[in-house]
Amino acid sequence: MTDLPHIVNWRRMDARLTTSGQPTEDQLADIQNLGVTRIVNLGPHHNKGALVDEAGTVTALGMTYIYIPVEFDDPTDQNYQDFKSAIEDAPDAKTHVHCIYNARVSAFFYRYAKDGSGLSQSDAFKNMESIWRPGDDWASFIGHTEAVGQPNLYAGDDY
Q: What distance in Å separates the CA atoms of residue 4 and residue 136, rounded to the nearest whole number?
């Protein structure tokens, strides 16, 4: 098994990095079975669909849990710097990054690609657009000014 399409909005960024919406406890075990050793969660614990004790589940599976709560209506540059550090602090570790729907994560990876991370900016943009189209504050946050003034386009309430 190299991918997990049964997890909401599952994406593979490269051989080391995968992303998704909120995995279940069983799906976290599936992710661990791929050789992932680090889970980065950008979805605040108070969001609908968040696991009650994700940190405990991840730790019990032998993985490292990194929690960077990004409020959907207020992504910050500090959130981005924390995300960037989490990705770069263990450059050889297989890492899975998720939020509730993969909207936050896809936008963060697009900004990361734009910052010269080595990921393809074009691929990161296509990945993000396959999940949602950031507008307003999110477009400014990722430096995609063409979308400023448009509402965020996604299917749901609490991403």
A: 32
pLDDT at 151: 56
Q: Is 121 exposed, middle or buried (0-12, 13-18, 19+ CB in 10 A)?
A: middle
Cβ 63 vs Cβ 37: under 8 Å: yes
Spatial distance between the Cα atoms of 86 and 44, rounded to a whole number of angstroms:
16
Report which of 56, 50, 89 is spatially closest to residue 69, judged by C-alpha positions.
50
Is 155 among the domain residues?
no
Cβ partners under 8 Å of residue 6, min gap 6: 27
State the pairing for strand pair 17-20/38-41: unpaired
Q: Is residue 3 part of a domain?
A: no
pTM for the whole structure: 0.92
For 124-145, the pLDDT digits (tens) are: 999 999 999 998 889 999 987 6
Give domain status of residue 123, yes or no: yes
